[in-house]
Amino acid sequence: MSEDKKVLDLEQRKQKIFCGGGTKAIEKQKAMGKLTARERIIALLDKDTFQEYDIFVKHDNIDFGMQDKDLPGDGVIIGTGAICGSPVAVFAQDFTVAGGSLGFMHARKITKIMDYALNMRIPLIGINDSGGARIQEGVNALAGYGEIFFRNTLSSGVIPQISVILGPCAGGAVYSPALTDFVFVVENISKMFITGPAVIKTVLGEEISDEELGGARVHAEQTGNAHFFAHSEDECFEQIRTLISMLPANNTQKAEKVAPAEPLAKYKIEEVVPADPSQPYDVRDVIRSIVDDSEFMEVMEFFAANIVVGFARINGETVGFVANQPLVLAGVLDCDSSDKAARFIRFCDAFNIPIVTLEDLPGYLPGIDQEHAGVIRHGAKMLYAYSESTVAKITIIMRKAYGGGYIAMGSRHLRSDFVFAWPQAEIAVMGAEGAANIIFRKEIMDAEDPKEMRKLKIQEYREKFANPYVAASKGYIDAVIAPAETRKFIVEALKVAATKNVGRPKKKHGLPPF
Fold first, then answer.
1. Interhelix angle for 335-350 vs 375-388, to 10°?
2. CA distance readout (Å), 255 to 49, 89, 369
3. Residue 28: CB partners within 8 Å, gap ≥ 6?
4. Judging by beta carbons within 10 Å of its beta carbon (0-12, 13-18, 19+), is residue 211 exposed, middle or buried?
5. Integer Cα distance of 397 and 390 in angstroms
6. 408 burial class (0-12, 13-18, 19+ CB within 10 angstroms)?
7. pLDDT of 1 strictly over 70
8. What is the pTM assigned to this prediction?
9. Angstrom distance (rounded) from CA 52 to CA 71
């Protein structure tokens, strides 16, 4: 063959593979409201940056008639590209080819790009759309999953790992997303569960739909397995691009600094928070009044909404926010919110992202359900995460900081670098009402007007203890600041902490309260 014919032959071979499972399979994919694997990669990455590898890989299984089946690319596409100019590695399972089922060579392609990502120290994005293990390949398929899980673990805390669920993700396949840093789901498209509705009906006699069992909303709102929820694939890809733009490529770098910007004028911090400590407000508006362009990317928005976590920029630098949400359960800590915050804190620490904590809570949620659900163990995760982290940590106590909640929310005692409090902050073992009932019980009971006496004692306690000045007198608070000064103090603290360098005792690893 001449050189021209060889090039033509190459193009024809590639075009055949580009067709995936064929016209009918692609039409079926489209009928489900889904893009093809190749379309997804092109939509996600910067234009003309995708470089595909292992396009001609084929399976070598000869059992159960597989020797007669041609599976283009063995049902998965891998390669590298760029997002906002930064290199990323990506794989996308192709549901049009054997339902995206994972066989030995399919897994080898995925593990190859995972190794590339780790060795090149660039983020990894995996698009999952698969019916699960390729049954015809037996233990080889299971071995493939194991190799993927091992690499997820090896890469954890070294490079950002993102999982995108754009179709079914069932059985053992779900554990790879669970091991990654962020999971993205799309309404009516994402399905994720260990055992499907058919198995549940057979074993337990219970009937449930795919969507009710493991749909996008279930994982975004109830299980906490998903970190970002979108209404369409395009919205999902835009979310991923925004997230990547705010993260460093790996754990040896810091996120790229951009041009600073002031918060939007319509967000005035002193007007957001009511003076009455019993009145709720949306803490996200406090964040927007502090950060550049008032832009905040919330993580796990719909799960454990009594705490808010997410990314923003201050003076051009990416920071992670952990904030109590008074709109939900008065911002208390509980099992789920502790897990949510602890995981986010550890991610920020792993990738050199400073943590800003906004505190306003009455403590931990009381109740039999919480105690029996293990709130002691779950709450300890947050203490562990803050104590373990060595990035810059800045805490703002806005209103209530009671009991164990005061300690858990990035207190000086867990080694926050800067702790600032507003003048209306109440730092105490418990709220003034409860404290007065205990401390002044006898005086209240013996009074001619117990109700009036109780009111007086509550005020006495609040003036004496429920303020920031007692803690400030002990050096637990670095400065009492006006709410309007909050951004200025955070900006200066971030500058000072830019060269922070602290060590921890040498050890193989700690033992968090998993």
1. 20
2. 21, 18, 40
3. 96
4. middle
5. 20
6. buried
7. no
8. 0.94
9. 17
